[in-house]
Amino acid sequence: MLQSFFILCSGADPNLLADCSQGEKSKYAGIGATVFFTAVMAFIASAYALFTVFDAVIPAVFFGFIWGLLIFNLDRFIVSTIKKRDRFGQEFLQATPRIILAIIIAIVISKPLEIKIFEKEINTVLLKEKNAMELANKKQIGTYFKTDLDKNKAQIAALKSEITNKEKEVNNLYNTYITEAEGTAGTKKLGKGPVYKEKRDKHDAALKELANLKTTNDAKIIELEKQAQTLQTDLETKINTAKPIIEGFDGLMARINALNQLPWLPSFFIMLLFLAIETSPIIAKLLAPKGEYDFKQEELETALKATLEQNKYQRELLVKTNATMHDKVYEDIAEDKRLYDIQRKNAEELFELQSNGFVEKQKGTL
Questions:
Q1: Which whole-number Å values give the CA distances from 151 to 146, 222, 325, in the listed order?
Q2: pLDDT value of position 57
Q3: Within 13 Å and on the Cβ side, how many CA atoms surround 269?
Q4: In angstroms, rounded to a whole number, what is the distance separating the alpha carbons of residues 183 and 196?
Q5: Any transmembrane segments, and where (predicted)?
Q6: Which of 262, 260, 244, 255 is nearest to 53 (CA)?
Q7: Could you give phi then psi for residue 229, rounded to 5 degrees?
Q8: The pTM is what?
Q9: For the segment 204-220, what is each residue's pLDDT rounded down to a tens digit?
Q10: Per-residue DSSP letters for 331-356?
């Protein structure tokens, strides 16, 4: 039962193999098994690759199954259409397009499995890339908001500096009138004289100005700080918005690029393994000597070809013979005197009718 299934997978004619030896049946069963398991590997590889795209099991399994059937059909077609010839060069030339197709299929099958085999290493590469992208994103967004934030900070600093300068001015005026009262500076007269009063009034006026300035600037600073908070919130919102996009940077193309950043030798040997599996039925058929099945297949083909050539020759001969017979028949008819007289009489009557009709038309015209 299993052997019959694998023979079916090989594309061989089971009726021709029925009378062949067990060894010949085993050879084609082995070829069919290779075709079948290659299709199974193609299903697994494509299902995994599609799972990374759709992130869902059912679509990945469904389309992976379709892809596996496609690869199975292609491999079966490739193996079944390679026929043994008397010269290896002719066989290899016949198999060259199929070998190229097998190489392409092997590369397509191996790549998703390479991604799965080196999944941990690929995740490490992707993590580094995600971190770099996140830092670059923060830097880009920070640069975008930097002008507004710097301007906001400069305005707040200017307002605070204005208050500080005013406080220094008030403190200096305070020291001036205190030292005047103590007699250690200014007029150096102890007591609260007119100069002291003048300096005290000047200090009190500056102190009122400081109070008004603080009230005004504090209100402005509060408003600017609110604006700064809004800008900072917008900046963090944009950074957080980009985070899911960066975290989702692990699709099929990203993983293939990450795989290309890893050492090439392990991936190369895995691809060679699948290439060997994919081309093994073709190579086996090229290297194997002619067997019973090949001789029987060749016999059927030559017999069919001979029959077709014979039928074609008979049809051409039949057409030629019929043409000769028809020529002879019409030649004999042409020499018959009775038929000649009948044909002449009919021609005379027809000519007379044509002549009379022409005369009637001419009269009508006149």
A1: 8, 15, 111
A2: 85
A3: 4
A4: 10
A5: 28-50, 56-74, 264-288
A6: 255
A7: -65, -40
A8: 0.51
A9: 777 787 788 788 877 88
A10: HHHHT-HHHHHHHHHHHHHHHHHHHH
